[in-house]
Structure formats: C-alpha cells, structure tokens
Design a protein that fits this description.
- The protein is about 85% helix and about 0% strand.
- The protein is built from 4 helices and no strands.
- The longest helix has about 35 residues.
- The chain is globular and about 50 Å long.
- The model has no long low-confidence stretch (mean pLDDT about 90).
Length: about 130
C-alpha cells in the first residue's frame, strides 16, 4: 500500500511541477496556489503513510526541518549571489517551490535535483549560443 500511495503522490507532484513549469515559462511567475498544492499533497501523503504505519510522525517533523533549512539556505545564497553579481538569479516563487519539493525529496535528493537543473540549464544556454 505504501508503494502505491508513494507512486500516486509522486505522480501528482509531477503534474503540479509541470503546471508550475508551464506557468513559469508563460508568465515568469509561479503562483502561490501551486506551491501550497505541493505542500498540501505532501501533508496528505505523510498523513496516509503514518495512518497505515509506514512512517512515524517524527519523519514529517524531520522533513519540515530539512525543508526550512534548505529553503532558508537557498534564499540566503540567492540574495547574496544577486547582490555580489548584480544579476537576477532566481525569483521568490522558485525558492518557495524548491522548498516545497524538498519536503518530498529530503535534503540530499533535493540538492541532486538542483544540481541536475543547473546542468540542464547550462546545456540549454550552450545550445542557444
């Protein structure tokens, strides 16, 4: 049951991330309602996992603490980098969405996802040149 619930949660997460991507490409914004939907989905998934005995409530606390640490660290990095370089790096919606996604992935995997996004962005930039 837990594998099925996890697969359903990650498929729904993928759909929400696709919606955020389309919106971001079109309007250069990520609506707060999409970020809140990701958080609500995580909460539903975690509650279901605890209810069927596949996770402990303390796991959710660890997820939240990790997400807050990641989100505040990412925000600080972006603000300092933008101040030093004088160039725009990432909007607030991006930071909020990555923080929400880190609830699902955990600190280690969200860093891998961020690295992969950077590599893909560099490949697109190189292709445009």
């Amino acid at each position: 049951m837990d594998a099925l619930a996890t697969a359903a949660a990650f498929l729904a997460l993928f759909a929400l991330l696709m919606a955020a991507s389309v919106t971001d490409i079109r309007s250069r914004t990520i609506p707060n309602r999409l970020v809140l939907a990701v958080v609500a989905l995580w909460l539903l998934w975690r509650c279901a996992s605890v209810a069927i005995g596949c996770a402990r409530p303390s796991d959710a606390v660890g997820d939240v603490v990790g997400a807050l640490l990641f989100g505040s660290g990412l925000l600080a990095f972006v603000l300092v980098s933008e101040r030093v370089s004088g160039r725009f790096m990432m909007g607030g919606g991006d930071v909020k969405l990555l923080t929400a996604v880190s609830l699902f992935l955990g600190l280690r995997l969200v860093l891998v996802a961020l690295l992969a996004a950077c590599v893909v962005s560099l490949a697109f930039a190189a292709a445009r040149l």
